[in-house]
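Reply to dn_fold:

You asked what the input looked like. This is it:
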Amino acid sequence: MPAGPAAWPGASAGGFAPSPGGHQAPGATCCVAALNSEYYPPSMRLVDGVESSLHLCVLLAAVSPGAVPAAQLAEFHALAPAATAKVLQQLASAGVIEARPGRTGGYALARPAGHITVAEIVAAASGPGPAFRCREIRRQGPCAGPPPAYSARCVIAQLMGEAEDAWWEALRAFSLAALAGRVSGQADDTIRARTQTWLREKARTA
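and this is what came back:
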């Protein structure tokens, strides 16, 4: 059995430690969900793959520099294998993780967790383009004016763009290592011990 990490989510190779103030009370909102809600209104929805991408990357941070096969990554959170495979491919295409062949193969972080931002993971899962798309409907309807009346950028589009820029800036400032530390700090002792055992059994090291 390959050696697993000394602590979840892997305090050795990645240098993980719960970020200051990152501990939450038992039963509190998931750290990933809390991170999203802190910067994004509940009425704004991200694609489903963002949640699984973040959780899978946190799991890979726990075994870094080791790897975990795709089937086991899906098993950990009881995710559909096909959906998990798609998410892993997106993350690999974005250079966040890498696929390793052979007996010690699987998926692993492409870089140290401290060098990967949450924004990179979210962008890989959500795809290109802004969350808010202005279709210039202000130019339509019975009271619409001539094109020169709309030479300035729509105020609504400007506000939404500024809000999205601020959100991305916040996620760029938050590393995967910091996120993994918060997830570890939130887990109770039983879940942490169970996860450590699972990682020792499933993680593959060269």
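The domain at 31-132+175-202 is CATH 1.10.10.10 (Arc Repressor Mutant, subunit A).
Hope that clears it up.
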